[in-house]
Amino acid sequence: MNTTPTQSGIHMANGFDPAEGVALDPAAEQLLRRRDRVLGPSYRLFYREPVAVESAKGVWLRGMDGRDYLDAYNNVPAIGHSHPAVTAAVTAQLERLNTHTRYLTEPVVDYAERLLTKFPAPLERVTFACTGSEAIDLAIRTARYQTGNTGLIVTEHAYHGTTLAAAEISPSLGPNNPIGAHVATIPSIDTARTPADQVGPRLLESVRAAIQQLDARGVGVAAIILDSIFSSDGVQAEPAGFLAPVVDLVHEAGGLYIADEVQPGFGRTGRWWGFERHGISPDLVVLGKPMGNGVPISALVGTVEAQQRFGSEVRYFNTFGGNPISIAAASAVLSVIESDGLVEHAAVVGERMRAGLASIAASYERATDVRGAGLFLALDLGEPDAALTPDPELAARVVNAMREAGILISASGPAAATLKIRPPLPFSEENADFLLETLDGVLARETRSRAGAR
Amino acid sequence: MNTTPTQSGIHMANGFDPAEGVALDPAAEQLLRRRDRVLGPSYRLFYREPVAVESAKGVWLRGMDGRDYLDAYNNVPAIGHSHPAVTAAVTAQLERLNTHTRYLTEPVVDYAERLLTKFPAPLERVTFACTGSEAIDLAIRTARYQTGNTGLIVTEHAYHGTTLAAAEISPSLGPNNPIGAHVATIPSIDTARTPADQVGPRLLESVRAAIQQLDARGVGVAAIILDSIFSSDGVQAEPAGFLAPVVDLVHEAGGLYIADEVQPGFGRTGRWWGFERHGISPDLVVLGKPMGNGVPISALVGTVEAQQRFGSEVRYFNTFGGNPISIAAASAVLSVIESDGLVEHAAVVGERMRAGLASIAASYERATDVRGAGLFLALDLGEPDAALTPDPELAARVVNAMREAGILISASGPAAATLKIRPPLPFSEENADFLLETLDGVLARETRSRAGAR
Predict the structure, then answer these.
(1) In a designed cystine with A256, which of A187, A283, A422, B319 is the match (CB 3.0 to 4.6 A)?
(2) What's the rounded Cα separation, in Å, for the pair B106 and B111?
(3) ipTM of the complex model
(4) B139 contacts in chain A (CB < 8 Å)
């Protein structure tokens, strides 16, 4: 077992398990009971003791228990929780107009123009939707229609979304989630256990094998879809550039390269887009989570060529996609990222975090690898053996001890033994130092208690 | 040809066709050029001369041309454009907190409790998403997992959404949109051409045949999915009750009944939900468009039984689904519908509209049928022959003449010859009378000019 058990066989990293019978804060306990009576059975909570949230500002969440929690996990409120620029923009737009794109309205055009300046020149058209899942789903439809092929290549621990088509390319959802017959998976990139000069060549070989598989199944290659920071595969960032040869290979096979930038996009990795680190230009780019700081908006950006056939021959209309209030939020986010220099900030504070984590890892033999780019960081916990055997129980204990200490992070990766640290972008050097210091203390206690338990 | 040609073979009722070379207002013309340079090729506009919108309030849109347009088409701003209750609720929430459902927050629970009181008792759990398409997609996944079957039954001119799985059950998207191999279509209900006592029996027979087809294909019946007001099938409302035997038949075959309430839900038909008119209770109900008055939110409401297997065995998490700001909007919408008595209002003004349209139809032999429920109304235009041969060109002329006269409606139905009238719910008796009077004048001119042209 490498994840926390929840209900009926579903395993989710850092999931709350009611069966553990943890005593909750009375307000949280009461809310949880009410919640269980009305929300569908899919809903899951984070942490051994779920966090009941009252309000949030910047990088801080205020709990119903009156405590403040440093948010080092949420990438949706990218420019900080409850940012006044988003509130002001959305409020002004709500007072004025909120309709759809079958009428001509100016905000969606203004924003599209601004957004596209952040992309390499061939990426010159954008289609708006509401969620990353919708944009991935549209990317799949677009790529299939464009290429005439149906085969898709993803990593074996990929997560790309919740629609039927997105879930079919999301093996990380577990054994009960069917993977499509037209899907070929490649091994997760595993930079902790792979010599740096072998990361690219091994990936290239596995993509070549996947192409052969899809050809053998008679479906061809419509696209390879890769999260540019490989979030659910445990955060795989180095050596930057390892993706470049893969793109050429997929193009030769007649497929498109779809960059899933839902996680790395909008400055997270210290660049505007994760694919930039690899020196490549995608055919289609999927944007989501941080785009509107939590106001639902997503987008598919692409070359004219990649979108032309589907766009001109198949009807697609997303009622809420690109509506003026979502656009107002997205426009405010873009402005704040620019005016506050958050891309550069993510690079600088991210590097301080990476160095700090590396320094901590040097002190604890069970901290087996540190990875990341910008403010997307990962620390593996496991055995100091040749296989760096992952230790998901230790990861769960550390995540929950951090929560007790007032800092929210989570666990991720194929073995759920990777600490995932991904704060709102305004995370300061002071916040970083507080996190590093607290993590140091938690690891000291938790690795000792582990040893003691043996 | 029964619809307006747009680009490269796509036909869409009431679509703008740049090839017609209509002279536009200069501001609109300039915005259109900018738009075409940045938005994806899927985007389409309404009307021969697209409407460029500056602002909106209540049931009125203000154009960039300085004119006011009476909105008799948009069901998303259900409680009226720019409603101050939505603005206030969303603004207050944006200032305080916007996070996701893996933390405990109170608004989503409060709203779920309130929403579920509007449903029959067995419908007691709700899962939130962002768009009707996402909720339909989740309903499909849920029904398939629950029943172990994959077959789906829909009408031959159904529209259920834009994700790959939703588009596969949306034949109204046209010939380039592939319909799934597990989909059986039944003929559109056509109450204008069917004796009232035959509507139910014919539907039942076609569903029986569809079940046999799916059994013969070896896929079984996972669900029948029906828009309770049959919007894209031309608005089919009477005789109320015709759906009841169908539900029993599908249940006997092992399938679920999914009510698509994206169009009729939240009071549109003069009842809270369209399915109520048929005296039935669905297994799953899909909610969307009007739910947040334009702030993206949707939901899947269902029985515990229908949702249990998928919910407990498959991971599903929608990042923006049920987020506090979407919930704030939805909660304000529910309050206003209740406090302003909009369900009853829709019934009363809708009946005035229906009677007025029937009176108009009595004066014009080319107005061949009037249908509807509450504030969802339809008027067919066609030949006064035995087949009531539809006249989509006349419908397009009437829709555009109404736009010229300052009233926004559209055309719909399998032949695109049905005027679709579906205003925000606060549409007043005065608004109704203005629309009826204007339509009378337009029909007088357009049916005469048609006769003259022959």
Answers:
(1) A283
(2) 9
(3) 0.96
(4) none
**Amino acid present at A149:** N
* Torsion over CA: A96, A100, A101, A104 (sign): negative
* CB B385, CB B425: distance < 8 Å: no
CA distance B104 to A44: 10
In 3D, which of A224, A131, A410 has the Cα closest to residue B319?
Answer: A131
Q: Which helix (DSSP H) or strand (DSSP E) does residue B286 occupy?
A: strand B284-287
Digits of tens for pLDDT over chain A (454 positions)? 333 334 444 678 899 998 898 999 899 999 999 999 999 999 999 999 999 999 999 999 999 999 999 999 999 999 999 999 999 999 999 999 999 999 999 999 999 999 999 999 999 999 999 999 999 999 999 999 999 999 999 999 999 999 999 999 999 999 999 998 999 999 999 999 999 999 999 999 999 999 999 999 999 999 999 999 999 999 999 999 999 999 999 999 999 999 999 999 999 999 999 999 999 999 999 999 999 999 999 999 999 999 999 999 999 999 999 999 999 999 999 999 999 999 999 999 999 999 999 999 999 999 999 999 999 999 999 999 999 999 999 999 999 999 999 999 999 999 999 999 999 999 999 999 999 999 999 999 999 854 434 3
Best residue in A31, A34, A42 to probe B by mutation, most B CBs within 10 Å?
Answer: A42
Identify residue A229 by its one-letter amino acid code.
Answer: I
Output the six-digit token pair for A151. 């085969």
**Residues carrying CATH 3.40.640.10, chain B:** 84-339
Measured at the CA of B229, the angle between CA B42 and CA B53, to 5 degrees, comes to 40
State which CATH number among 3.90.1150.10, 1.10.645.10, 3.90.180.10, 3.90.320.10 fits the domain covering A20-79+342-453: 3.90.1150.10
In chain A, CATH 3.90.1150.10 sits at 20-79+342-453
What Å distances lie between residue A142 and A300, A308, A315, A327, CA to CA?
10, 9, 11, 23
Percent helix, strand, coil in chain B (nearest 5)? Answer: 40, 20, 40
In B, which residues are within 8 Å of A315 by CB distance?
Answer: 10, 12, 42, 44, 173-174, 177
HEC string for A417-446: CEEEECCCCCCCHHHHHHHHHHHHHHHHHH
Quote the CA–CA distance of B44 and A127 in Å, as a whole number: 12
- Choose the mutation target among A6, A126, A305, A319 for the interface with B, i.e. most B CBs under 10 Å: A319
Residues of chain B with CATH 3.90.1150.10: 14-79+342-453
CATH of B14-79+342-453, one of 3.40.50.720, 3.40.1160.10, 1.10.10.10, 3.90.1150.10: 3.90.1150.10
Closest CA to B225 of B314, B133, B296: B133
- Strand blocks (E) in A43-95: 53-57, 60-63, 68-71
With a cut of 70, say whether residue B4 has pLDDT above it.
no
The alpha-helical segments, DSSP class H, found in B10-157 are 26-38, 84-96, 106-116, 132-147
Token output for B165: 């799985």
Contact A376, A231 (CB under 8 A): yes
- Gap between the Cα atoms of A331 and A325, Å rounded: 10
- Residue among A86, A131, A314 minimizing CB distance to B134: A131
**CB-based contacts of B106, cutoff 8 Å, min separation 6:** A31
Q: Which residues neighbour B284 within 8 Å (Cβ) at sequence distance 6 or greater? A: B139, B142, B143, B223, B256, B257, B258, B259, B300, B301, B302, B303, B306, B307
Find chain B residues with C-beta within 8 A of A85's C-beta: none
What 3-state class would DSSP assign to B60? strand
Asked if CATH classification 3.10.20.310 holds for the domain at B84-339, the reply, yes or no, is no
Q: Which of B44, B133, B294 sits opposite A323 (nearest CB)?
A: B294
